[in-house]
Amino acid sequence: MAKVHNFSAGPSILPQEVLQKASEAILNFDNLNLSLIEISHRSKNFEAVMERARQLVKELMQLPDGYSVLFLQGGASLQFVMVAQNLLREGGKAAYTDTGTWASNAIKEAKLFGQVDVIASSKAQNYTFIPKDYTIPEDADYFHCTSNNTIYGTQMKEFPDSPVPMVCDMSSDIFSRRIDFSKFSLIYAGAQKNMGPAGTTLVVVKDEILGKTGRAIPAMMDYRTHISKDSMYNTPPVFAVYVSMLTLEWLINNGGLAWIEELNRKKAELMYGEIDRNPLFYGTVAKEDRSWMNACFLLHDPKLEPEFDKMWKEAGISGIRGHRSVGGYRASMYNALPLESVQVLVDVMKEFERVKG
Ligand SMILES: *Cc1c(COP(=O)(O)O)cnc(C)c1O
Question: Can you give the residue ranges of the Aminotransferase class V domain (predicted)?
Fold first, then answer.
């Protein structure tokens, strides 16, 4: 079969060796002659998977004591709710930055639980940059930001020093670069962009920020329930956790965050270099805020799109149509995407220039 270059925005590309191991575990896990998905989550074999996944997260994040690592369900979208329900005090307020569709969804949900101050927004400019000039109020219960805006293709390169607990939605750039994770009190990420299959959400939370809201929280919605049961309060998404564990192992075995940061930098430089060089195309966001994960670009002449589409499809490229709110193209270059795939796309853009320019 011909090679497919998978630029899908999510669910997205996973390392081949991870897919290979995952498919083997579907048939015969740990030499039990049973499938991973037909054994008890309370078996020793699966408990070891959950424990290893937690340890790998801690190792990659280099976290000090006092944090819990959870694998939950409900996607990042449920975290929009759980964050506010668990952290926004009765009568309190939270500070948010509005940098894209996901950030604005998080804001909408938080408003169900109390006052939300949107302290910075790029909405009026169609989310084409990351606001940097804002002050986080000291009387907020927490500050929420989105590290990478998947749909618009912007990314925070630096994080503020927050006077209040900092919460971050890292769904689409988790483990893509080195970050001081200890700056954050809560990090969450749906697995399906950069860590594994859909079905589990990583939550890393500093224990001391919990239990202060004064409201009753249903057990399933309460982080403390899941912490006290090691993410096994109810049946966890066993397959999604297992594949996430394999992906984290792949990352560490290849050199960890320093290695992947360098690879992601190279991919982004190659991609944006061509977008800037090629007179037929242009990037949609402020250069300093460009995402290393999702590169959004347009053709100056949208009438050329069908011809360009034909060309990249023939080259084996998949998944670069832009989100409907931006149009054009979005090349998602998550961790598992090889540099070679970006080179194929760049070569197609060059060839398109040669025939059309
Ligand atoms: C995809 C995405 C979400 C939504 O994730 P679900 O798991 O589908 O709920 C939230 N935030 C960001 C930054 C995303 O990229």
Answer: 5-345
